[in-house]
Amino acid sequence: MTTYAALLRGINVGGGRKVPMAELRALVEELGHTGVRTHLQSGQAVFTAGRGDEESLAAELAAAIEKRFGFPVDVLVRDHAYLRAVAEACPFPAAELAPRQLHVTYLSAQPDPERYEAIDRAAHLPEEFRLGDRAVYLYAPDGLGRSKLAEQLSRTRVTKGVIATSRNWNTVLKLVELTAGEV
User: Which SUPFAM superfamilies match (predicted)?
Assistant: First the structure.
């Protein structure tokens, strides 16, 4: 049995694409998974599965969400070891920063460095980003909502063909904790 986090992209934002967390928990249980919990309203579900891999579990959950709620939702599924490794590999001094200043964008595939070459890093300072293992780390001292670099990182030329969903540092750490079985 492996504990996973499902990261749903773009739900419960701005009044659209509503997926109530109680219904999401019930749906994940209906798929045969156990220990189902959700975190916040922005689309994180933690569950234990005895079968499948990250990609097949994500596809299964995405299909079930579309069938139940009537709209497609991009889903990434990651296990505890991966989530912990991403947190531990943070290239920024996370302990010294406010959680709103640090974000991780989880990706469905390894980022292609060539797609990021056109971004003028110097023009966005003091904001910075670094590529990781199927992740992009973003340091945005004024927060994500004011970040011009975040806009550049989300452009389709960078993310084309890749599922990308961002989480703030508090959520990154909470997902590590929840998938470890701690509450």
Answer: SP0830-like
Can you give the pLDDT at residue 12? 64
Please name the helix (run of DSSP H) or strand (run of DSSP E) that holds residue 122, with its range, or none: none
The helix (run of H) or strand (run of E) holding residue 167 is: strand 164-168
Same domain, 108 and 140: yes
Q: What is the spatial distance between Cα 64 and Cα 22, in angstroms, rounded to a whole number?
A: 15
Q: Cis peptide leading into 126, omega within 30 of 0?
A: yes
- Domain residues for the domain of 148 are 86-179
Mean pLDDT of the chain: 90
Residues of the chain above pLDDT 90, percent: 63
Q: How many helices (H) and strands (E) does the chain have?
A: 7, 8
- The one-letter code for the residue type at 15 is G
CATH code for the domain of 110: 3.30.70
Where does the pLDDT of residue 15 fall: very low under 50, low under 70, confident under 90, or very high at 90 and above? low
In 3D space, the residue among 66, 143, 162, 159 whose CA is nearest the CA of residue 100 turns out to be 143
Residue 44 near residue 8, CB atoms below 8 Å: yes
